[in-house]
Amino acid sequence: MLEPSHNDELPPIPGKRYFTIGEVSDLCLVKPHVLRYWEQEFPQLAPVKRRGNRRYYQHQDVLMIRQIRSLLYEEGYTIGGARQRLSGDSAKDDAMQSKQLIKQMLAELEELAKVLKR
């Protein structure tokens, strides 16, 4: 389990449109069965389902999963408490998602700068 100070250990989110459950599992450091369970518990989390009932997550879904993970694993919320926090505090959630998106973009820009320096 990561501590709040080690949240930067999560890998950067690639600039793809859709992610499989295995990719999201690796990006968020959460097992696929946990992601499927969270889909039942959090109405905000609803990946696109395509042929064969395969799940495809979008960028905002990955950010939501990271936020849920942070609430449960780092801040110590219960499932019910995290659900209530996500549904009742949308302005704060938007700010948290924006902050995560900015961190992600900075990491990608730093990576790009390294490539360009070569």
What is the ordering of alpha helices and beta strands?
HHEEHHH
Terminal-residue CA separation: 35 Å
CATH class: Mainly Alpha
* CATH fold description: Multidrug-efflux Transporter Regulator, Chain: A, Domain 2
User: Mind telling me the C-alpha Rg?
Assistant: 15 Å
User: How many E-type strands?
Assistant: 2
Q: Architecture, according to CATH?
A: Orthogonal Bundle
Helix content: 55-70%
Class of secondary structure makeup: mainly alpha
> How many distinct domains?
1
What is the residue-averaged pLDDT?
85
Q: What general outline do the C-alpha atoms trace? A: globular
Low-confidence stretches: 1-6
Order of strands across the main sheet: 1-2
Largest sheet: 2 strands, antiparallel
Strand content: 5-15%
Keywords: DNA-binding
Organism: Spongiibacter nanhainus
Domain HTH merR-type: 18-88
Pfam family, one: MerR_1
Features:
two-stranded antiparallel sheet; disordered N terminus; 5% strand; 118 residues; Multidrug-efflux Transporter Regulator, Chain: A, Domain 2; single chain; mainly alpha; 61% helix; globular
Write the layout of secondary structure elements.
Layout (H helix, E strand, L loop, with lengths): L20 H8 L3 H10 L6 E3 L3 E3 L2 H16 L4 H10 L1 H28 L1
Helix pairs in contact: 3-5
Keywords: DNA-binding
Protein name: MerR family transcriptional regulator
GO molecular function, one term: DNA-binding transcription factor activity
